[in-house]
Amino acid sequence: MPDNQNPPSAPPSQPATATPPPMTGGEDKTVAIVAYLTLIGFLVAIIIHSNKKTKLGAFHLRQTLGLLLTSLVCIIPLLNLILIPIVLVLWIFGLIAAINGQMKPMPVVGPLYQQWFGTTFD
């Protein structure tokens, strides 16, 4: 009978650990979140951001600026029936990204807002 020898095993590899994403400071997230809370919140976020500029804050200020300008189109009578629910959904996506401290653009229009408002708030 042949000897059943196990082939030499490879040295145990170290488990792959994913590095967690860097946590953003509380002030950084505050600007991002407050920017989505009405027009007054947007203005307050600009003031807070002017004291300490951050990439996350600038990103969400641009997203909110675009959303506010888009919502102005809701004044047009027939378009408001279509746009109000869309603006509400976009607002929710932006707010969730801000709460999570992510620089995730709103669907469809978010990348356009970043392109159009480029270095605004930097």
General description of the model:
The chain is an all-alpha fold. The chain has one domain. It contains 5 helices and no strands. α1 runs antiparallel to α2, α1 runs parallel beside α3 and α3 packs antiparallel against α4. The longest helix has 23 residues. It is globular, with a radius of gyration of 23 Å.
Strands, count: 0
Estimated structural class: mainly alpha
Number of domains: 1
> How far do the termini sit from each other?
76 Å
Largest sheet: none
| Approximate shape | globular
Report low-confidence residues grouped into runs of 5 or more: 15-24
Tally of alpha and pi helices: 5
Mean pLDDT: 81
Order of helices and strands: HHHHH
Question: Which band does the percent of strand residues land in?
Answer: under 5%
Question: Would you summarize the structure shown here?
Answer:
By secondary structure, the chain is mainly alpha-helical. 57% of the residues lie in helices and 0% in strands. Helix 1 runs parallel beside helix 3 and helix 3 (55-71) packs antiparallel against helix 4.
